[in-house]
Write a structure and sequence with these properties.
Helices cover 74% and strands 0% of the residues. The protein has helices spanning 4-48, 53-101, 108-118, 124-137, 160-178, 195-216. Helix 2 packs across helix 5 (160-178).
Length: 217
């Protein structure tokens, strides 16, 4: 039987998870802005020193890929927040129905949303607790198969056209704000078969990934 205490506990867990998502979304916005800045800095460095133009262009594309991933993660969290709000409204509705009808029916809609949210790495722990409370209250049925979804695996490398689009967006925006000469990223040509150049490029990319990880921490 769904009680007032259970409703309060469920709502408290929902508010806790909502605040967590809000913080994560805000942090990702900071990372997005810093990554945009790094893309612009790399472009300026390539312009000042033509000998570094190729390395700067590669660096820009690496940061652009990270920016794409950051935006996708942010969008996923925004969607999850909407699902969480939906769960909260449906819990309140279920309690109101119980008060009127004296009984409660398991909600397929809540179960679908909760099942999706339980698999979210950012909320996994507290969402498990919430799902257990909802099961006790009779709002959802016992959940099984809560393994990580396939879409949480590392995504494939972003398409080059998507990277080009992001770079164009950032550089064009900068040009529009400053009224400056366009900063055009140097195209990254297919490498000539020289092992030394490839090793230098790999080392540079590893270094950039390290900088991005430090930025996110």
């Amino acid at each position: 039987m769904l009680t007032v205490t259970q409703v309060r506990k469920c709502n408290a867990l929902i508010r806790q998870n909502t605040r967590k998502l809000d913080r994560d979304i805000a942090n990702l916005k900071v990372v997005e802005n810093k990554t945009k800045s790094l893309i612009l800095q790399a472009g300026k460095r390539g312009q000042r020193n033509p000998s570094q133009a190729k390395a700067a262009a590669q660096e820009q594309r690496l940061f652009a890929r990270e920016l794409i991933r950051t935006r996708k993660t942010s969008q996923r969290l925004v969607t999850s927040k909407a699902q969480l709000n939906s769960v909260g409204m449906q819990v309140t509705e279920a309690f109101a129905v119980r008060k009127i009808e004296g009984s409660i029916r398991a909600s397929v809609g809540i179960m679908k949303d909760v099942n999706s949210l339980v698999k979210l790495p950012e909320l996994m722990g507290t969402m498990r607790e919430l799902s257990q409370e909802l099961v006790k209250a009779g709002i959802i049925e016992e959940m099984v198969g809560d393994s990580m979804p396939d879409q949480m695996e590392e995504e494939d490398e972003e398409a080059e056209s998507e990277v080009d689009k992001v770079l164009g967006e950032i550089l064009q925006d900068k040009m529009g704000k400053a009224g400056a000469t366009p900063i055009t990223p140097t195209p990254v040509k297919e490498p000539v078969a020289e092992e030394e150049d490839e090793e230098d490029a790999d080392a540079m990319l590893d270094q950039m990934r390290g900088r991005l990880e430090a930025l996110k921490s």
